[in-house]
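Pipeline run #58 for the internal structure catalog. This entry was flagged by the ingest filter as a single-chain record with no existing model, so it goes straight to prediction. Upstream metadata was stripped on purpose; only the residue string is passed forward. Reviewer on rotation: M.T. Logging verbosity set to normal.
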Amino acid sequence: MMWLIKYRFQAAIALLLIAAAWTLGYGMARSVYQNKISSLKAAHIAQLLQHEQQAKQQFQAALSEQQKWQQFAQQQSIQIAQMQQKLDAQAAQQQKEIPNVIQKDNSGGITFNGLGNDGLRHYRKSLGYTD
């Protein structure tokens, strides 16, 4: 115990040095790990932004593809509607010609119960055959 009284000043300085070293070491370690955490957060945010940009590009590509197909479908619908109008007009014209054809078939003094020559021509024409 005597040595404690004799070396108390040196012991106090040693304790102060140990406390200062511990505090300084703790502060440095904390600073190093905070820097590491900050750099990890920055890397994570950069990665998230990169993924977001890739997803946005993929979405834009898909949207462009969808618009292309919608445009194609719209063009096809217009063509189908035009063809349908054309076919309807042809069918109406064919219907208008039927009474004339029947009258021509029966005008030669012979009455047909089926198709006469003009009726047969009309039938073949309506099916798309040439005379």
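catalog note: The chain has a mean pLDDT of 85.
catalog note: The longest helix spans residues 8-106.
status: ready for reviewer M.T.
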